[in-house]
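To the wet lab folks,

You asked to see what we're planning to order before we commit. Fair enough. Below is the target structure as tokens, and below that is the sequence we designed to fit it. If anything looks off to you, flag it before the synthesis order goes out.
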């Protein structure tokens, strides 16, 4: 299983590095050398650095990029492994280590709030969508209510319009309902959202999510164009635990969209949806089922 997961990570790395620089964090010098030997022969836009971490999911603990007065800046929020579920001491320090190695050509602002990258989704025009449970959370930021977060995110990210959903996550999800697995912006007028079959254990909560998504409105009061993503199937780990498979957990890069697929009939349908919505980007299928 680990070999297949490693192969998927290498597949992701090669895809991203075709069109932009990719920084990979290695736990030690030995792994750094192995990765360079495997990747740098056919992938030139990769830099491997030694920064030990607890978890691989840097989307949640890495810095977030914002544009302020035509300048790019990085915001480093605190990370506590989704409300203290696991040890996160190394992950929480990773952005500081990246800054010390001077890997970015812009300044970094360190923020005391605990917010994961996968918990927020924006349209790039001042609208943010998120689930309350993964942000307005006592285990993450004690004593801070929704209005406090709205004030902070307005100041830090330039958000003017907030869309909040009540969703506590798919089966197997440690994040308390990160938005990046269930609802995404394709553009400022279009929302993609996760669905599943009637026999899936998440069916009832995803039907409720659908009702909430259909009720959302743009800043001008008009409804969004909403596109349901089909069911990715039911997937379990080696111990039989349900995994939070989702077609919504794609990655947009400068010239690509890396789209997870699950060896299901619906894979082809999702690829067609993404090609229609992102005609200026290459849609790259990444096998997410093992």
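Sequence we intend to order:
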């Amino acid at each position: 299983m680990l070999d297949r997961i490693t192969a998927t990570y290498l597949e992701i790395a090669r895809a991203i590095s075709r069109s932009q620089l990719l920084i990979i964090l290695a736990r030690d010098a030995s792994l750094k050398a192995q990765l360079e030997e495997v990747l740098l022969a056919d992938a030139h836009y990769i830099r491997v650095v030694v920064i030990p971490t607890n978890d691989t999911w840097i989307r949640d603990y890495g810095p977030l990029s914002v544009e302020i007065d035509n300048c790019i800046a990085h915001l480093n929020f605190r990370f506590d492994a989704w409300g203290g579920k696991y040890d996160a001491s190394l992950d929480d320090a990773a952005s500081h280590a990246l800054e010390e190695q001077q890997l970015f050509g812009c300044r970094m602002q360190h923020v005391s709030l605990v917010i994961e990258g996968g918990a927020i989704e924006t349209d790039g025009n001042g609208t943010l969508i998120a689930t309350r449970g993964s942000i307005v959370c006592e285990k993450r930021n004690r004593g801070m209510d929704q209005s406090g977060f709205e004030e902070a995110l307005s100041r830090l990210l330039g958000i003017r319009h907030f869309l909040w959903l009540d969703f506590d996550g798919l089966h197997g999800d440690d994040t308390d309902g990160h938005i990046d697995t269930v609802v995404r912006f394709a553009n400022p007028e279009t929302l993609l959202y996760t669905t599943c079959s009637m026999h899936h254990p998440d069916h009832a909560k995803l039907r409720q999510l659908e009702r909430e998504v259909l009720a959302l409105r743009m800043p001008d009061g008009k409804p969004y164009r909403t596109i349901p993503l089909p069911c990715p199937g039911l997937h379990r780990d080696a111990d039989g635990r349900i995994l939070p498979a989702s077609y919504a957990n794609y990655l947009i890069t400068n010239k690509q969209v890396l789209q997870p697929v699950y060896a299901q009939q619906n894979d082809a349908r999702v690829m067609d949806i993404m090609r229609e919505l992102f005609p200026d980007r290459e849609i790259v299928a990444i096998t997410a089922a093992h």
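Structural context that might help your review: The two ends are 7 Å apart (CA to CA). The mean pLDDT is 94.

Thanks,
Computational group
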